[in-house]
Specification:
heterodimer; A: about 350 residues; TIM Barrel; Helicase, Ruva Protein, domain 3; 2 domains; eight-stranded parallel beta barrel; 10 strands; B: about 300 residues; alpha/beta; Rossmann fold; six-stranded parallel sheet; five-stranded mixed sheet; 11 strands; globular
């Protein structure tokens, strides 16, 4: 019997980073229908940083969480509806309770890789509400593999039913992923998943390394539509897994159709590895910083590559977008004093 | 002059740091440092400083109602709800550092004198103490403040288990305070914990959507407010702005702590303690003028 891999599709969540959170309700409806027809098991929707994250800091979404979730719910018959939740942005009272009311099935509670204990109350709440609850560790390259395993173990103890670690900066090479999956498999009794970014061209290779090391959940989005250089491209991922002899339960033709629809209806410019994404991947800065770094660098007339490397040097994490202005302003001042 | 007798309830990091600050104060004398365990690090520190300690908790105050005129409650929200009844009955003024929110919110650089007639004031949150004065200056000088958003980053090591478990309450309380002090219809608070070593200083960015941002009009009041804050939190400074970026007003401030009992990077904890001390000293001065403390104060 072939081994099964569970595919979760964040096109309508991570893809929002690539369009400054401007995916419309109509676009969400269109893609949800196509994804549902293709049999994609989980479709994640939301602001790029999840529910409750629409803000000046991260970018304001064009539609509310309520409209996103209600639209997706109406158009997903078989696929499960997933959300991303970051404590510190979203609260149980303001966001999680409402998301449950709108009909979400899968709640992925995320924190920076070193801060798992921030997720305890949200994970417990989601479990108690009877939802399929994940623990997610973001920016996972910023902690040692041992440390990552420790944090993952905490999430399991809070009640997470699966654990996904994210390469949010697209910084990993395959060996890095293999080592981490092995560590996680050693200490956890729950399934392990991996979420790739393609900044260094390793999105698919890293996902393959993850399953070969024992991961059973993978994230992939249509044409790779996601932050920075994008995610692992779901249609390539499913095809590669098929060649490797893994089962995803997804209808390949219908998946290809869904991705063609995404390209025609949602994705204004296909994700490629732009110069700036390479710098983001190398410097280990969150891929979602690409758009704001470009905007702010223009205003302060500084090189966005310098901004990325300086942010990386300062170990700025996802969510700290306001530091972009500080760094750009400082670089501009420095440049001025040198002329 | 006579110093006002104050008690500290709660011998954790916050309580112990308050004690060190009170030890320096010209206006306050710590007459009792109250916890539950005489061997806790805070209790040992208090004994080292020659301060009277008690492990009886709130019972100490009940049994010694004349021991203090003012109490800092640095326990928990749940405990404060019980304690507040005792304070009220004994006519002891309470400065509440828990998220219980029973009394009005106190931000010394903005509403110090308004709080003097209150018997129980709440110190909001660390992010609230850092951001609401800026939000207030924006509210006072700009037309039609539609939205205020505050993002704070603190060092992971400065956030203990209680802070982490109360993250949602932190957000809700800070948002409420921002509304109250800026007059904005909608507010949002965000907290990031950054694990980088060496530990980062607390940094907070205040962003506002207003009709036709007027930076020149904002500057004088903003500078005045920042000066006022610096009088009790010397490590408070503006690092970015005020400027307009992408159509919104942006101000970023940094808070370096005094490094008394808590490390200097824990500016988030320092600012709430400094604010509490500033409020207590104002009570002390006010009472001295009124002759309020004649029968209780310690004569120096």
């Amino acid at each position: 019997m072939n081994k099964k891999i569970l595919i979760s599709d964040p096109t309508l969540r991570d893809g929002n980073h690539a369009v400054r959170h401007q995916i419309t309700a109509q676009q969400m409806a269109t893609y949800c229908k196509a994804a549902d027809a293709a049999g994609i098991p989980i479709v994640e929707v939301g602001h790029g940083n999840g529910v409750g994250a629409s803000s000046l800091q991260l970018g304001e979404a064009i539609i509310s969480d309520e409209i996103m979730l209600r639209t997706a719910r109406e158009n997903l018959k078989n696929s499960l509806l997933g959300i991303h939740v970051i404590p510190g942005f979203a609260t149980i009272e303001k966001d999680l309770k409402k998301a449950i009311e709108y009909g979400v099935d899968v709640i992925r509670v995320a924190s920076h890789c070193t801060e798992a204990d921030l997720t305890q109350r949200h994970i417990e709440f989601a479990r108690n509400a009877g939802k399929n609850t994940y623990g997610v560790l973001m920016m996972s390259h910023m902690i040692s593999p041992e440390g990552l395993a420790e944090e993952a173990k905490k999430m399991e103890s809070y009640g997470a039913e699966s654990l996904v670690f994210m390469d949010s900066s697209g910084h990993y090479l395959p060996a890095d992923v293999t080592e981490r999956v092995q560590r996680l498999k050693d200490v956890l009794n729950i399934p392990v998943g991996f979420h790739a970014h393609n900044n260094l061209g390793m999105g698919i290779a890293n996902s393959v390394a993850a399953v070969e090391a024992g991961a059973t959940i993978l994230d992939g989005s249509a044409r790779g539509f996601g932050a920075g250089a994008g995610n692992a491209q779901i249609e390539v991922l499913v095809a590669v897994l098929e060649r490797m002899g893994y089962e995803t339960g997804i209808d390949l033709y219908k998946l290809l159709d869904a991705c063609d629809i995404a390209e025609a209806e949602i994705i204004p410019s296909l994700p490629t590895i732009k110069s700036i994404s390479i710098v983001s991947g190398l410097s280990g800065v969150f891929s979602g910083f690409m758009k704001p770094v470009e905007r702010v660098s223009k205003q302060f007339n500084v090189d966005p590559r310098d901004v990325f490397f300086e942010l990386g040097r300062r170990k700025i994490i996802a969510g700290q977008e306001d530091y972009i202005i500080e760094v750009a302003a400082e670089l501009a001042k420095k440049a001025e004093s040198q002329t | 002059m006579k110093k006002t007798n104050v008690a500290i309830l709660g011998s954790g990091n916050i309580g112990t740091d308050l004690l060190v600050k009170i030890h320096r104060s010209k206006y306050l004398h710590c007459s009792a440092f109250i916890g539950r365990n005489l061997r806790s690090p805070g209790m040992l520190k208090a004994q080292e400083l020659g301060v009277f300690v008690s492990a009886e908790g709130i019972d100490y105050i009940k049994n010694n109602p004349k021991s203090c005129e003012l109490v800092f409650d640095a326990t928990s929200a749940q405990a404060h709800i019980e304690h507040s009844k005792v304070f009220k009955e004994l006519n002891i003024t309470a400065i509440d550092l828990t998220p219980a929110k029973l009394g009005p919110m106190c931000v010394p650089s903005v509403n110090l004198s308004d709080c003097l007639n209150e018997k129980n004031v709440n110190m909001v949150t660390c992010g609230g103490q850092a951001s609401t004065p800026i939000a207030y200056a924006i509210g006072k000088t700009q037309k039609n403040v539609q939205y205020v958003e505050v993002v704070s980053a603190i060092a992971s090591r400065s956030a203990g288990p209680a802070t982490r478990a109360n993250l949602d309450e932190y957000i809700h309380t800070t948002e409420e305070a921002l509304k109250k002090f800026s007059g904005a219809a909608k507010t949002k608070a965000i907290l990031n914990l950054n694990p980088a070593t060496p530990c980062i200083d607390m940094q907070t960015t205040i962003m506002a959507k207003v009709e036709n941002p007027d930076i020149e009009k904002l500057k004088p009041l903003l500078n005045e407010i920042v000066h006022r804050i610096q009088s009790y939190v010397p490590g408070y400074q503006i690092v970015v702005g005020p400027l307009v970026e992408n159509g919104r007003i942006v101000v970023t401030i940094k808070v370096k702590g005094l490094g008394d009992y808590l490390p200097a990077y824990a500016g988030n904890l320092d600012i709430i303690n400094c604010a509490a001390i500033a409020m207590a000293e104002e009570y002390a001065r006010h009472w001295a003028e009124e002759g309020h403390s004649s029968h209780k104060g310690k004569i120096i």
